[in-house]
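Sample pair:
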Amino acid sequence: MIFVLLAAGASGAKAVENVGEAIAGEVRAVFEKCRTAVVKIEAVDEHGALAGTGFFVDPNGTLYTSFTIGGDTHDITVWIDGQKIPAERLLSDSRSGIAILKIDRQTPFLMLGKSSELGVASPVMVLGYPMDLPLTPAFGLVGGFDVKYLGHFFSTAHIRANVPVQRGEGGAPLLNLHGEVIGVLISSLEDNSSGGFALPIEAAEKVRRDFLRFGEVRPGWLGVVVAAAEKEGVQVADFAGDAPAQKAGVRRGDILTQVGVTQIKSTEDVLNASFYLTAGDEVPITVLRDGKSIAFKVESSAHPNAPRATEQALSPRKPRAMSLTTEK
């Protein structure tokens, strides 16, 4: 690319300038389209006043934010149209790192996209309220999809966005260039502001669906202990406790090929699929045994180690990443 630009001379430089202007135009268009549905949130915890970001996902005042600002806090308010509106906490879930709030008002809202359509280097944006500054857009690229960071595991794969992020932007929407939400920003990379991790919007919606069905989050559990198979794939190595999968007929040594709608090719795939399980729901599982494909229906049970939605203690599997909440 550099060689082509050098050879092309001024015409190449002009082409790059045109591309930059086109990207800037798309960013401005998304900013104008989405800005009214993104809000500043203030709250108080045991250390004092906090500020973060949130965004509306329906016309009835329901919004997502990060657990840090909407979880173990009180006196939560939302700035909208120059007014501070009291917010009710519907749910906070330390496992996913988000909270769901509601204000008593009709609101603009953001459309939801699909994080599954992203790839490495896909363009993305963040709209947030850094520090005590106005709503600010930031542009960058998807750096990867990670299940662990600094040796600590996420509850499911997170989007690593190489987008400049600052304190106060926790809970901000991660957007594609259609202006659709594809993630919720929950933490930054350790000790710098060069990027952050976002919970995929599908994972956030799983949490909200549980709330709408049961009034709480109900993480499911199959009780399967897995390991990489000798040749390829993922093998059932053991079962934990009173494992639902074992009751349904899955055996040690079976090769997992599908859990729910997720095709299993690595142990990370099992982690991702497990996040979307809901206790009490029937889950289709497919395994290879002696070269034959066998399908099972397994009733997922409540995860024995999952914190309930009303608990505010941080999950022991939460990655050690910098908070994006501003102390006022």
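Residues 64 and 182 are 12 Å apart (CA to CA).
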